[in-house]
Amino acid sequence: MTEFKQRRLVLVGLAVAGLATIGWGCRRPAAPESTLQLWTLELAPKFNPYMTSVIEAWETRYPDVPVRWTDLLWGTVERKLLAAVFARTAPDLVNLNPPFAANLASKGGLTDLTPLLPDGASERYLPSVWDAARDPKGGQIAIPWYLTVRLSLVNRDLLRGAGLEQAPQRWEDVPAFARQIRERTGHYGVFVTVVPDDSAELLESMVQMGVTLLDDRQRAAFNTPAGRKAFAFWTNLYREGLLPREVVSQGQRRAVELFQSGELALLASGAKFLGNIQTNAPGVAAVTEPRPPLTGTDGVANVALMTLVVPRQSDNAADAVLFALFLTNGENQARFAREALVLPSSTQALAAVRAELEAERPSDPGAAQIREARLLSAETLERARVLVPATPGVKRLQSIIYTQLQRAMLGQISSDQAVREAEEQWNRYARSRWP
């Protein structure tokens, strides 16, 4: 018997014992033991060959545990998964981001993977992202999969036109940069949306500015000198005309449009997006340079993480964990990172990807540009972490903060009043959810 099969038998036993002691109510009817249900987010059809080959490799090793793969659109997964949980037909393994995983875990919907993981499993992954997949109350609720790092894509022509040699690397330097770009070129330096259901970049910037969003009791912790300073930072930028007026009404897509039309000096985006710019705006791509992301004084960057979770209703929890470990092993992650132009959470895969990028000799400027951005992204991971805690209700928190910031930016209230209003609204919600 192989070591892998021995481990599977042990974990199956642990899973059965664990499920027997969990009082979580009526479970869905047992799925056929021979089928493992996997849901992912927006990988088809581009990555069909990759996913098919990984599943085939798994089924060669475990012919008695076939995998049925379903790919969903990003905007549908929450609704469909909640519906499946309600109907007690949840899949065995689901690709989610940390905020939704934490929200589902808070409702008792996810399995604590701790007793199902082999010894040393955490050592296979970057420590910061492994910790981001852990819930203080729910345990290890997820296994990290792939990552993206937001870089600063800089238009060199606009910098040159403004008499600037470098783009800012700290948020504290952004106002002077934005002012000089605006005054000398008539264009804008940065675009950070305040649309409540869009990008979390502004919320992440607050953490980088030293703001603690929530305390241990899930109450607001941002009404502090650092929090008031951060609210005033964004309010003043907008009121001075140093942010496009659309930041209060349009999301990150508008930032992309402005950058591709040559009207925005700095776009916060990933290395993968450079390919889109090269296709859609080759003239802008030719003068675009990837630079390190904006951070606070500590230099910590943000990393966006995708994970794999096991719904608590799964009758195949042990096999689901083993398949998740297989899907995220060094070999499979390194291959996916190459094809998807993302970064792996596996330390082994990250080392392999970095070595390949350092040895790569691109044959054209476009490939060289993407290679430079990917290498910079890999280097940035050394000082990156998930900045916004994956706490239940974090999207509600973002909505509350952004809405009050919008009011301050539009001159309806002061930035200090926006802090107080956001604090009151969040704490009212938090008291009802966590008495």
Rounded to an integer in angstroms, the radius of gyration calculated over CA atoms is 23 Å
CATH topology descriptor of the largest domain:
D-Maltodextrin-Binding Protein, domain 2
Please write the CATH class name of the largest domain.
Alpha Beta
In which range does the helix fraction lie?
A: 40-55%
Strand content: 5-15%
What are the secondary-structure elements, in order, as H or E?
HEHEHEHHEEEEHHHHHEHHEEHHEHHEHH
Q: If classified by CATH, what would the architecture of the largest domain be?
A: 3-Layer(aba) Sandwich
CATH superfamily of the largest domain: Periplasmic binding protein-like II
Please report the distance between the alpha carbons of the first and last residues. Answer: 51 Å
Structure class:
alpha/beta
**DSSP summary, beta strand count:** 12
Low-confidence stretches: 1-5, 9-31
Largest sheet: 7 strands, mixed
Q: What's the mean pLDDT score?
A: 91
Q: What's the number of structural domains?
A: 2
Count of helical stretches: 18
Shape: globular
Looking at this protein, list some descriptive labels.
D-Maltodextrin-Binding Protein, domain 2; 3-stranded antiparallel sheet; alpha/beta
Describe what this molecule looks like in 3D.
The protein has 435 residues and is α/β, with parallel strands linked by helices. The protein folds into two domains: 3-147 and 304-354, Periplasmic binding protein-like II (D-Maltodextrin-Binding Protein, domain 2, 3-Layer(aba) Sandwich); 149-301 and 387-433, D-Maltodextrin-Binding Protein, domain 2 (3-Layer(aba) Sandwich). The chain is 47% helix and 12% strand. The protein has helices at residues 3-20, 48-61, 77-86, 98-106, 127-132, 156-161, 174-185, 201-208, 225-239, 252-260, 274-280, 282-286, 317-327, 330-340, 347-359, 365-380, 394-409, 415-433; strands at residues 36-41, 67-72, 93-96, 134-135, 139-140, 143-149, 151-155, 266-269, 288-291, 301-309, 343-344, 384-385. Strands 1, 2, 3, 6, 10, 11 and 12 form a seven-stranded mixed β-sheet that branches. A three-stranded antiparallel β-sheet has the order 8-7-9. β4 (134-135) and β5 form a beta hairpin. α14 crosses α15. The radius of gyration is 23 Å and the shape is globular. Residues 1-5 and 9-31 have low confidence and may be disordered.
